[in-house]
Amino acid sequence: MNTEQQIKIDDDQLFGKVYKPSVVKRLIPYLKGRLRLVILALVATVLWSISQTAMPFMIKVAIDEYITKGKWNGLIILSIGFILVMLFNSICSLVMEISCVKIGQHVLYRLKKDMFGKIQQLSLGFFDKNETGRLISRVQGDVYQIGEFFSMMVTGLADFAVLGWIIGAILILNWKLGLISMVVIPCLVAVMWYWQPRAKIGFVFSRTAISAVNSYLNQNISGVRVVQAMNRQRYNAEQFDSLNQDNKSASLWASKLSAGLIPPVDFLTGVSIALALFFGAIFAQSGSMEIGSIVAFVLYIQRFFDPIRSVTMQYTQLQRSMTSGERIFELMDQTSDVVDKENAPAMGLIEGKVEFKNVSFSYDGNVNVIRNLNLHIEPGTTNAIVGPTGAGKTTLVSLLSRFYDVDKDNGAILIDGNDIRNVSRESMINQMASVLQEPYIFTGTVRENIKYRHEEVSEEEMISASKAVGCHDLIMRLPEKYNTMLEERGSNLSLGERQLISFARALVADPKILILDEATANIDSHTEQMIQEALSKLLVGRTSIIIAHRLSTIRDADKIIVLKDGEVVEEGSHQQLVDQMGLYKLLHDNNLASLSQV
Fold first, then answer.
1. How many CB atoms are located within 10 Å of the residue 170 CB?
2. What does DSSP assign to residue 140?
3. 156, 162, 357, 553: which has the fewest C-beta neighbours closer than 10 Å?
4. Is 166 left (phi over 0), alpha (psi -120 to 50) or beta?
């Protein structure tokens, strides 16, 4: 992909129309509860613009009516009035700024809250297709851009109001001199026309470069163990230096383009002032204009170009805000693949009978991972699922947990005779628990991690669950025991300790169906032995489904289900399957051989 193509792609992603009614329409409800604040901001903006325009006119009156005529009493009164107008202007500016910040933060808060809630509700199919980094970017970067949008809109409104008042004041003072002073406007338009597309590309380059730096930085921090194990520090540093240099160059270019607009605008301002002074002097000599009016004219011209410069600089930011808003609401409009039926009844107390009836499933709609699978699991039994990589083991339990839904034409999954698509998922999941191969520990205390989904359980129940899985003693050795703060992903615990805590988390709610997805695959033999001893007691009376990598851990299962290419090829006890001399026997022998080599 060449640079021109890259710029086009990034430009489409970062910039769009300056104003998108659909985005603004969606944002308006987020102002709910802040109508008074919006009105206050608008009123303060109008009053600020009027006071801004009034000050040069007051200077004109002071010169023409009081200074040249020696009316000092009137001048004193006008000076006091001028100070009061300045104070009023400052108060309006303060009210305007505070109101904008409050409005922006309110919208930002509500958007983040809604987006987080939406992301939590989406099914795993959505996350399979979308990168986590992009989602975080939308919640953080895009929402921030929208937060800036309201402040920018009020500021832009203020700038246009000031422009309107200034044009009116100039035409009232002397319309001929006003037209003469404004002959530089076509030149200003030409400058803007030349500057805008180049500035746009510069900002795109800068944004793309900083994204590359952040991505590389995140990648190498997350994979620091691999980096050091492979001794890639020097090479990575050189790569990062190259990306950082590109970012520096792009940022300097964007800064130069941004700064490059100021000199021509200042020059045109100077030309306009020069025209006003020259022709104003001619009009003054002919008696058609007073000195104070010329001074006011010059002040108005200075203020006329300030909002133009400000509006121009906000143009690109407004485009970004609209594009960010479009991306935000695109995410908000996503629908989950797993949705409860309207008025779906809650599932009663689960006994644990599980049936898969002619189930087929595909992630992409083309290749079936599960093929016409039929399976019957009795309540209260321990069932192991084994098979080669890609056989569909994890998919099977993911379907049972309703992380994905089976299409109505591709079979059904039943619990106690109830099609799981016809009942409330929450009522079903509240009676199930899963322990995964990679235990995920959240930043927080040990207590918060164990009670993660069931804060209502008592201390005694929490401690009982911890004792049952053998982690109570190790918790009591921690500095603050159950109040010990665990670092991100439990990095201050060993993998085995993290897994034991995840077992306690799963069992604290007394689940009726327990799913263990290779939960002992990555732990040491001592910890595995502790877990096996605990499971021998904990699995009694529960329907348990165990995906096993180490076949030695499931020898005592009531039923072992062997999958291959998404189909059940063998079922039975360990001894029955060994005697069949089929796939299980092959897997078992290979497993024994690999263990003997350790």
1. 22
2. I
3. 357
4. alpha
Provide CB contacts within 8 A for 225, sequence distance 6+: none
3-class SS of residue 586: helix
Provide the whole-model pTM. Answer: 0.68
Burial annotation 95-111 (CB, 10 A radius, 16+ → b, else e): bbeebbebbbebbbebb
| Strands of the sheet with 513-517, listed across from one edge | 432-435, 513-517, 543-547, 382-386, 559-564, 567-572
As a whole number of angstroms, the distance between CA 162 and CA 185 comes to: 17
Could you tell me whether strands 418-419 and 412-415 are parallel, antiparallel, or unpaired per DSSP bridges?
antiparallel
Q: Give the 3-state secondary structure of residue 598.
A: coil
CA distance 108 to 147: 5
pLDDT digits (tens, 9 = 90+) for 487-527: 776 777 777 778 888 888 888 878 888 888 876 666 666 76
Residue 543 β-bridge partners: 513
Q: What angle do CA 261, 262, 265 make, to 5 degrees?
A: 90
Structure-block tokens of residue 347: 């599932």
pLDDT digits 0-9 by tens, 296-338: 888 888 888 777 767 666 766 676 777 777 778 888 887 777 7
- From CA 525, how far away is CA 528, in angstroms rounded? 5
For every residue of 519-548, DSSP letters joined together read: TTTTS-HHHHHHHHHHHHHHTTTSEEEEE-
| CA distance to 12, 396, 410, per residue, from 318 (Å) | 15, 48, 48
Distance of CA 68 to the CA centre of its chain: 63
Q: Which amino acid is at 57?
A: F
Q: Which of 201, 197, 195, 150 is nearest to 318 (CA)?
A: 150
Please give the DSSP secondary-structure letter assigned to residue 367: S
Domains and CATH numbers, the chain: 21-332 (1.20.1560.10), 347-431+512-598 (3.40.50.300), 437-510 (3.40.50.300)
Instruction: With beta carbons less than 8 A apart as the criterion, state whether 279 and 28 touch.
Output: no
